[in-house]
Amino acid sequence: MSGPTTEPRNGRRRVAVAGVALSDCGRVDGPTPYALHAQAARRALADSGLDRSVIDGLASAGLGTLAPVDVAEYLGLRPTWVDSTSVGGSTWEVMAAHAADAIAAGHANAVLLVYGSTARADIKARRRTSNLSFGARGPLQFEVPYGHTLVSKYAMAARRHMHEYGTTLEQLASVAVQARANAATNPDAMFRDPITVDEVLSGEMIADPFTKLHCCIRSDGGCAVLLAAEDLVPDTAKAPVWILGSGTSVSHTTMSEWEDFTVSPAAVSGRIAFERAGLTPADIDLAQIYDAFTYMTLVTLEDLGFCAKGEGGAFVEKGRLLRDGELPVNTDGGGLSACHPGMRGLFLLVEAVRQLRGEAGPGRQVTKRGGRLPEVALASGTGGWFCSSGTVILGR
């Protein structure tokens, strides 16, 4: 293993994850999304040990009329650096990349990334309905009127992979089974009871080939991540986790413009992140991968280089993704079992940092040979229907 490097490059400051936290998650009927933002932010700041006065940057998306201005006001912050990039589930990895660049260049010292959503509670209270699509304006006008829903786009891509490479429903189902097994020891996970491949396959059909358990859950919840310049690290409460490299990429909006349904934009963002970190997939001890659907995990593993294209089905079998497997993936249970309040990408960073710090807890902490803590983790977010990707590599 070549190992992480945290030496300054080209005179730029190193960037650390100083604090991470979850708000209340799962079934949260009382608080507003703003309250979940505030709860997560306070907890992340406490986790960092820093004073709130050091925060001069804010990254937020998905809430308010003028995001992130509304959230900044609610939190009582007056940032001089802001980001409201919104590219779906990969938003937070993309924002983390932006924030790390800003801190490294000296444009900010400490940037708070924060998210909160009451997607489940809002539907239960009939304040909103489920989204079948992202709207019908612009290029989407050529797809949405014909019933091409959000889930059907993922389902089509999965079917293409099955056609091209012989990937089986059982292999896809095993992703959900392993995610649930990882969630079993996570007290914050919404669903923890074990499931079997047969139960996944026999479930209610949502969009062929996806049954209900192939699809992410709908929850409430929020989280926050505080990034800080190396100058602030001596004042933090815990040892830093460093941003080693990141990459971003966008692909398409309409399915007709997607050259290959079996290749996601993670193939580009991952390559860039590895190059910038000076690492390879073999150096990664654990991965947190966006899993709105089982196929997302499988194809993203291929595109990040953990296995060859077309071999994802075989790779995810035999427990490789379990906490004690060959490549622990979504160690909190992921969007398939732990939580999925909307744009889940920030949760990937929280879980990666906790695992690297050794804070995951009994029965959930990933260890290497000899009981050593993991040294390098990867978080890869996906937005839209494989429309965007952000990959962040972190190390102790």
How would you describe this structure to a colleague?
This protein is of the alpha/beta class and 396 residues long. Helix content is 31%, strand content 17%. The protein contains 12 helices and 11 strands. The protein has helices spanning 33-48, 69-75, 91-104, 119-124, 150-165, 169-183, 197-201, 266-277, 294-303, 312-315, 334-337, 345-357; strands at 15-22, 57-59, 81-83, 110-117, 205-207, 210-211, 221-229, 241-250, 286-289, 376-383, 388-395. The strands form 2 sheets. A 9-stranded mixed beta sheet has the order 3-2-4-7-1-8-11-10-9, with helices on both faces. α2 (69-75) links the parallel β2 (57-59) and β3 (81-83). α6 crosses α9. The longest helix has 16 residues, at 33-48. The protein is globular, with a radius of gyration of 20 Å.
Question: What characteristics describe this protein?
Answer:
396 residues, alpha/beta, nine-stranded mixed β-sheet, 12 helices, globular, disordered N terminus
